[in-house]
Structure formats: structure tokens, C-alpha cells
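Input (structure):
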């Protein structure tokens, strides 16, 4: 597996962590507006995973189909924190905002040194990645 395919697969895994976390948070929170937001955010992650997976498959490689240990630990931490604090929604929003930080930084790191082929793909996806990040950051700030 080439370095560029490995990098894309790592982005798929990190993005899948976010997707799964949003789906989980959607099921856990009671606020209908947050449920809708989390569902929308999970959907954007699904679309991003699909775009990255197409590129991996176009290079005759198998796209990653799992997540990361860090992503699972973050979800468990959020669940634990949500049960211990009175602001369950705030606990999920804070952890999801950190997940968005992780996704954004991973994309920026790969984009910085990407070959032209990968750079073009990531450059088209970065506005969505940044918008998702900013959306959760702004939500977290408004809840504080």
C-alpha cells in the first residue's frame, strides 16, 4: 500500500470515528434540534467517507472499513461524562467539537504534503470539513 493510500485510509478511519460518534450522540440526546444536527453531521461524514473511499478503490486498494481506538475511547468518555454531569447535551457537544478538531487537523496535515492527485481531492472536501468544524465550535461556544 502506498503512502498516499495509507493516508487516505487514515482519514477514512478518523472521519468514520466522527460519523459513528454523531450517530451515537443522536441516539443519546433528547433535544430534537441536536438530534437533527447530529444526524446531518453524520450524513456529511458518510459523504466524505464515500469520496475518500472512491479514490482509494480507484487505486486498486481496499478502503478502510473501521475506525480508530482513539475514536472509540472518546465516545466512551463522552458517555461517562454525560452520565456524571447535569448537562448531557453539553458533554456530547464538547466531545464532538474535539472530534471535529481531530478531523480538521488530520485533513490539514495530509493536505500540506499531498501529491497533486490527493491534494485536488482534499481541496474539494476542505470547505465541508471546515464548515463542520466551525459549526460545532460555534455550538459549543453558544452553550457555555
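Output (sequence):
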Amino acid at each position: 500500500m502506498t503512502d498516499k493510500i495509507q493516508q487516505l485510509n487514515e482519514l477514512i478511519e478518523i472521519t468514520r470515528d466522527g460519523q459513528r460518534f454523531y450517530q451515537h450522540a443522536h441516539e443519546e440526546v433528547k433535544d430534537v434540534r441536536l438530534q437533527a444536527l447530529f444526524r446531518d453531521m453524520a450524513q456529511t461524514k458518510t459523504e466524505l467517507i464515500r469520496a475518500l473511499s472512491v479514490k482509494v478503490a480507484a487505486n486498486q486498494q481496499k478502503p478502510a472499513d473501521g475506525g480508530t481506538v482513539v475514536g472509540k475511547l472518546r465516545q466512551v468518555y463522552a458517555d461517562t461524562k454525560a452520565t456524571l454531569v447535569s448537562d448531557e447535551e453539553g458533554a456530547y457537544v464538547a466531545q464532538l467539537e474535539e472530534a471535529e478538531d481531530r478531523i480538521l487537523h488530520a485533513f490539514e496535515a495530509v493536505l500540506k504534503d499531498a501529491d497533486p492527485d490527493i491534494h485536488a481531492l482534499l481541496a474539494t472536501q476542505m470547505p465541508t470539513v471546515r464548515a463542520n468544524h466551525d459549526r460545532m465550535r460555534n455550538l459549543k461556544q453558544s452553550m457555555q
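Notes: The longest helix spans residues 116-143. The CA atoms of residues 88 and 103 lie 23 Å apart.
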